[in-house]
């Protein structure tokens, strides 16, 4: 009897170990119950969301359709995602399909140093090997992650130079693919794109649960409450082209909020200080205004669509698509011609930008590359929401002080490694602050002379904002593009 009990006990232990090992190696590349966001080259964002599933012996997942390159500068708004038009999951194998319907195979239960044929066609064979299996941080959470390394061979199985040689794919146990490739255009992009095509993708956010970066909708951006306060500086100058110039500082205070099915209506108190010049031969005029207005925020379907998902306009002869999160990118426009959708040849000013943030509304916008030519820039310099504050508040009652400001030049723009700040009058102390796209101060310099040099060598290329402060008050703001 004791012997039988021991045998039974041993069997149970072996069974539990087997179940535990199987559970430890239960990985999946894509999940049907969440949306995942990946960042590719040139700051482009790709979305994968499963629209529908079929379950039989295999699980077949159908990703939502996104704009896909199908010919030279030719796009299909009903193409699959970067993961293809369907994904088949069967017995620890996940099958993806490229635009030639060739199969890309990922063995999710592969162990360390195990290899398999990931892809094969008459010209090349790509072998995948699990080269690392470790605990890593994924979207701020520790998880078990497998690193898969690719090696490329020709038809005789000799190593072949290829852009995918040594490339890696990463699979997290609980979050799926965290580093991947564009499987639609695998193993290489066959067509000439009008813009860019993402090849390498890194996971930056998921829903359910919400981790990492999220897609923010229009009503989330303009989610204000009574008592919220937002301060802005708007600078415009077209004097060189025969126009006018102004600097407008204004404060928006939320007095009342009313919710409706398709809109939000705000009653706002807007206080404005405007310094205006009609032309180069006229003097500046300063005016002050304080009035109550009604502002209605309506739904914005284009803004609410996720990156890469097309939205049709007019009679479906034109569509728009956001190449990244809509809070910090502008939509691209495509027109249909000869059974193809082509990117519009009308190029917007490369220096146009608009940036929003959840609960803060517009935080920055602008147009024009050169401050000695025409430009129009707006920047949020302060906000107050409940007990949270950021920035330096504006004081709009001292008109005489505004008239005494010196002439200030910030140049060159764009710049590679430095900028110059020149003031024709240096009777008081000033400071120069540089901010990133989120409004965080990343550099602060005290100005000691009329002509100042500020190094930007330590900064990455991109868009930055600046402001000049005097006695803790902002007197000038703008943008800097580092190339």
Short description:
The chain has 483 residues and is mainly beta.
Key features of this structure:
Immunoglobulin-like, 13-stranded antiparallel β-sheet, 3 domains, 34 strands, 7% helix, elongated, 4 helices, mainly beta, eight-stranded antiparallel β-sheet, 483 residues
Q: Report the uncertain regions.
A: 9-23
Largest sheet: 13 strands, antiparallel
User: Rough shape?
Assistant: elongated
Helix content: under 10%
The structure class reads mainly beta
Number of strands: 34
How many structural domains in the coordinates?
Answer: 3
Alpha-carbon Rg, integer: 28 Å
Q: Give the overall average pLDDT.
A: 87
Distance between the termini: 81 Å
Q: What percent of residues are in strands?
A: over 45%
Q: Helical element count?
A: 4
Summarize the structure in words:
- The strands form 6 sheets. Strands 1, 2, 3, 6, 7, 8, 9, 10, 11, 12, 13, 14 and 15 form a 13-stranded antiparallel beta sheet that branches.
- A hairpin with a 3-residue loop joins strand 12 and strand 13.
- The chain is mainly beta and 483 residues long.
- The protein folds into 3 domains: 27-212, no CATH class; 215-402, no CATH class; 405-483, Macroglobulin (MG2) domain (Immunoglobulin-like, Sandwich).
- The longest helix has 23 residues, at 2-24.
- The chain has helices at residues 2-24, 218-221, 301-304, 399-403, and strands spanning 35-39, 45-55, 59-63, 66-71, 74-79, 87-90, 93-97, 103-107, 115-120, 124-138, 141-154, 168-172, 176-181, 200-206, 211-212, 229-237, 245-259, 263-277, 285-298, 311-313, 318-321, 332-337, 340-343, 353-357, 361-367, 375-385, 388-391, 408-411, 418-423, 430-435, 441-447, 451-455, 462-470, 473-482.
- It is elongated.
